[in-house]
Design goal:
Distance between the termini: 50 Å
CATH class of the largest domain: Alpha Beta
Number of strands: 8
Oligomer: single chain
CATH architecture of the largest domain: 3-Layer(aba) Sandwich
Number of domains: 2
Largest sheet: 5 strands, parallel
Length: about 300
């Protein structure tokens, strides 16, 4: 009968042999696909998606084919298909087929109803359940951004709308801020600095952008109100920021930006609806400010940050 130490050595040898043969641990699959380990385990446990090889000690190992399956699942999710319906699509249809019915609208209705009731625990429960099943980008694109658009339209001229708005924006900032804080504690290196250039306190799309960057293992620092130009440059210097992103949902004057961004040598991003106003002036501004990039919304900002090598 083998001693515990011998059994442990055998298990370690088997694990290393599997890695040498090309099997990937869950942390590496998460790094390659952007789907975190918690979500991968939830897909397996609840829906039988991507069932990995298990070692005697319970470690999950994935093949390259399974990594491609994860990427295919992301393709479906980004088209609006609910994760509960993906297995049928994987088994029966090619990835370019039309998506099946999805339950994103049901999730948005559940959140909207909870927000109207100021039911913080219900909002938290619904979001936590969704967060366990979907990557941050998919949640942002399919759930939170459409929800914000629906709520903003609903709140126009409605009695009690300001109360609901403050409630939800406060919850969203608290929720995403806690995730960002936790991620920052695990990460090293200079942060991306995000600054709210809007008149709107608790700017929700700023926090969505920060959350997406943080989910890509990028340390982030969020300033939730504007800074004057001299202090903006000082903040970038003291943080040794890898990049600066200004988010604004109000009109910005592009001609003022060269002065505002003077002395800031890192990559710079302007994000939000502001970049859709006076497009000709923004085109001129880009030629006058080095390393300046524009993005309309959090998803576009995430893509721009990724393309410019911020993470």
């Amino acid at each position: 009968m083998k001693q515990p130490s011998q059994q442990a050595d055998d298990n370690s040898t088997q694990y290393q042999r599997a890695l040498d043969e090309g099997w990937l641990p869950i942390r590496e699959v998460a790094r390659q696909t952007g789907v975190n380990a918690v979500t991968l385990r939830a897909w397996e446990r609840r829906y039988g998606l991507i069932v990995p090889l298990r070692t005697p000690k319970g470690h999950r190992l994935f093949s390259q084919e399974q990594v491609q399956q994860v990427l295919t699942i992301l393709t479906w999710l980004n088209r609006g298909v609910a994760v509960s319906q993906v297995k049928h699509l994987l088994d029966n249809t090619p990835a370019h087929s039309a998506p099946a019915e999805n339950d994103w609208q049901r999730l948005r209705q559940s959140l909207s109803q909870a927000i109207s009731q100021l039911a913080e625990r219900k909002v938290d429960d619904v979001f936590n359940q969704a967060m366990a099943l979907y990557p941050p980008r998919t949640l942002c694109e399919q759930l939170l951004m459409p929800l914000l658009a629906e709520l903003e339209q609903h709140w126009q001229g409605q009695f009690g709308s300001q109360m609901e708005q403050v409630f939800f924006y406060s919850w969203l900032r608290s929720k995403l801020g806690a995730r960002i804080y936790h991620n920052n504690r695990q990460l090293q290196g200079p942060p991306l600095l995000l600054v709210n250039q809007s008149d709107l306190a608790l700017e929700p799309h700023l926090w969505l952008t920060a959350w997406l960057a943080s989910s890509a293992d990028c340390p982030v620092e969020v300033f939730d109100w504007p800074l004057p130009g001299a202090e903006l440059a000082l903040a970038v210097e003291r943080l040794q920021a890898r990049g600066l992103l200004l988010y604004s949902s109000k009109t910005l004057n592009p001609t003022h930006l060269p002065k505002l961004l003077n002395g800031i040598t890192c990559k710079k991003f302007i994000a939000g609806p502001a970049v859709c106003i006076h497009p000709a002036e923004w085109s001129v501004c880009i030629t006058r400010v080095a390393d300046l990039n524009l993005a309309q919304d959090p998803i576009a900002a995430y893509q721009a940050l990724l393309q410019r090598g911020l993470f």
